[in-house]
Write a structure and sequence with these properties.
Mean pLDDT: 94
Helix content: 25-40%
Strand order of the largest sheet: 10-11-15-12-13-14
Shape: globular
Radius of gyration: 23 Å
CATH class of the largest domain: Alpha Beta
Distance between the termini: 71 Å
Number of strands: 15
Oligomer: single chain
Strand content: 15-25%
CATH topology of the largest domain: UDP-N-acetylmuramoyl-L-alanine:D-glutamate ligase
CATH superfamily of the largest domain: Mur-like, catalytic domain
CATH architecture of the largest domain: 3-Layer(aba) Sandwich
Length: about 400
């Protein structure tokens, strides 16, 4: 049996480690030759080896129309993911989590909460940890973040619980249509283990699949968390399904006391108290739904908002950016294609993100929220959303804003 590891990033390296431990025979291919610099030449795939391959283990970033994948599939070579292999060997409880926005926050917070309550849990998947790295340890729960890419390729996964936080247009360039994208997300429900069809949590999704989150529960936090209510409700429902009313009540107390905080996701990083100006870095918001929901988190406040957009938009023609009226200014780079819904904001176009400081100097006053919630991918100007978020934070801190 000869394997091909297709894609040699984080997932590919975890697969290699697993296959090495199994004494399996494998080759490696990656489109970026520099990624193979440390791979022994005997392990590097070449076209002459194509007829030797029995199983492809694919990394989630590989597009379905990749030339090598198409060749192998034409030869009826089996295609698997690290999740398929994990599921073949791991028989414990697994919670699968997908959604356009909020997956990482949900997975991290649920894992943290369970550990605080002495539940032996771990998280893996799209957060950067392959489940293969957890395969030799028994947990009460493994929580898997699953992207649409991973779900597209995965065919074998036994879930104790399935979570769809939301489904809105994203990654259309990869999936080619919103229908294909949403179908990949919905696929998670097919992986619920036999007899567990009711162990699902479904949030907003443009009517694609029936929502089943409660709508009559008021979840509040003493910390005035800048976290959307739907995410808090989903976390609550997950704790209820795991540990019943007792664990759910502990969760209600937990969100009153502990801060839900993740880098580059509604991250409050600076506050000028004397002028009541607060700055938020939400660079991880790479689609319209994320920005629209972020803007709603300030609707009950007394401050005026300044919204800063950036990036390459990935939306369908029908989808619009809906900005809460609290935002009086929206700053948009000239090269960004935006589709704004109804709004009363003043639109300010800047030539480039590097010109942002000059505009902010002019419009900053008192009692304001400044939200860097981008609505597009970062790749036109930055390596990733983390670099983009750090750029914004450093820009604000470098301004040395003076008190009025």
């Amino acid at each position: 049996m000869k394997y091909l590891i297709l894609g040699y990033g984080v997932t590919g390296k975890s697969v290699e480690n697993y296959l090495t431990n199994q004494n399996a025979d494998y080759l490696i291919f990656d489109d970026l030759k520099e990624n193979l610099n440390k791979v022994h030449h005997s392990k590097i795939f070449s076209e002459k080896n194509i007829d030797l391959i029995d199983i492809v283990i694919i990394s989630p970033g590989i597009k379905p129309d990749h030339h090598l994948l198409e060749q192998l599939m034409s030869k009826n070579v089996s295609v698997k993911t690290d999740i398929d292999i994990f599921s073949e060997h791991y028989k414990g409880n697994v919670i699968g989590v997908t959604g356009t926005n909020g997956k990482t926050t949900f997975v991290n917070e649920l894992n943290k909460f369970l550990k605080i309550n002495n539940v032996h849990s771990a998280s893996a998947g799209n957060i950067g940890i392959s489940p293969l790295d957890l395969i030799d340890t028994s947990y009460e729960y493994i929580i898997l973040e699953l992207s649409s890419y991973q779900l597209h390729y995965t065919s074998n996964l036994n879930l104790d619980m399935a979570v769809i936080l939301n489904i809105f247009p994203d990654h259309i360039d990869w999936h080619e249509s919103f229908n294909n994208y949403s179908s990949s997300k919905i696929k998670i429900l097919s992986f619920l283990s036999e007899g567990k069809s009711e162990r699902k949590i479904i949030g907003s999704n443009m009517g694609i699949v029936e929502k089943n989150l409660p709508n009559n529960i008021d979840i509040k936090s003493k910390n005035n968390l800048k976290v959307h209510r739907e995410l808090l409700l989903s976390l609550g429902e997950a704790t209820r399904k795991i540990g019943g009313v007792e664990l759910y009540n502990r969760y209600l107390e937990y969100i009153k006391k502990y801060e839900i905080k993740n880098p580059h996701r509604m991250e409050q990083f600076f506050k000028l108290k004397s002028r009541n100006i607060t700055f938020f870095n939400d660079s991880k918001a790479t689609n319209y739904h994320a920005v629209s929901e972020a803007s709603k988190l300030f609707t009950s406040g007394k401050e005026d908002g300044i919204l800063i957009l950036h990036g390459i938009t990935k939306e369908t023609n029908e989808n619009k950016l809906n900005i809460d009226p609290v935002f009086k200014y929206v700053i948009i780079p000239e090269d960004m294609n935006t589709n704004l819904g109804d709004h009363n904001a003043e639109i300010i176009h800047i030539k480039h993100i590097s010109n942002l400081k000059d505009i902010l100097v002019e419009i900053l006053s008192k009692n304001q929220i400044v939200l860097f919630s981008c609505g597009g991918s970062s790749f036109n100007d930055f390596e990733n959303y983390q670099v983009r978020g750090d750029y914004f934070k450093n820009l604000i801190l470098s301004m040395q804003i003076q008190d009025a």
